[in-house]
């Protein structure tokens, strides 16, 4: 972030990340934790303090020499907007440097609105959320939406059922509508990837998202997995029944189509069981130990989905006691994906690639 001169190098990001993780820490501890020299840490701390990102938090216990000054993050020194684009609405959150949600907003979108009109509305809502914050304190905007898309360019591909959105340069089109300071920008990623970034958890975990569609965000070995074309985690199009109903993707019997058919007749329990079968397949394929469920369909009946998916996992895993999988519902609820989108911008500030 060029507007954060103190953060131009990854050593400064590592120091800031360490201060955030420790809540309060000293220069001596920072040097030990980062492997930097005491002199390098002192210089970085001086720059971070001059930028207003950190401050002294009193004196720590002396270890014989002079008392150590403790340092802490100043959460309200920088701001990020995270946004999730649904087909019929956008969810936005204003997040501070510490990851705290300062405000949130649900923006209804006209069904079938053109990309241009939708982006105008989205940009206006982002502008309103940032209206009271000094422009130079804005780090950027993270935007999450359904794939397929290319997260490196922020360009959408052929989104099922939305032909007008094919090839839209979402990142650049939104950035052009915003008055962001130099160095701040827009980052675009899939909603499921943002979801897996929305809360810390196991190194090997999935965020399973049942909403307009069904997908999964994946973290393996502590790294978010996007695949070769930002297309990993197309979890909803695993075929469970070759003779099943036709799916929007063109196949028959995809998990997404089977869940949709069950929900169409009001059979939530059947949809939850089917989701459990899909999650069991995913766990057997990837050896996950944590699954977080999100999306509006899940949140409308969270205890049913959590309980049924956990029960199906116990039935279908060969040794459920040895291969324990924690199943939970996203703690941030309907804000989870927007919060994860903010994390796409915040992660690199703390030296975390891809927000992890
Ligand atoms: Zn399909």
From TrEMBL:
InterPro entries: ATPase_NBD, HTH_MarR-typ, ROK, ROK_cs, WH-like_DNA-bd_sf, WH_DNA-bd_sf. Belongs to the ROK (NagC/XylR) family. PANTHER family: GLUCOKINASE, ROK (REPRESSOR, ORF, KINASE) FAMILY. Coiled coil: none annotated. This is ROK family protein. Residues 12-56 form the HTH marR-type domain. Pfam families: MarR_2 (PF12802), ROK (PF00480). It comes from the Bacteria.
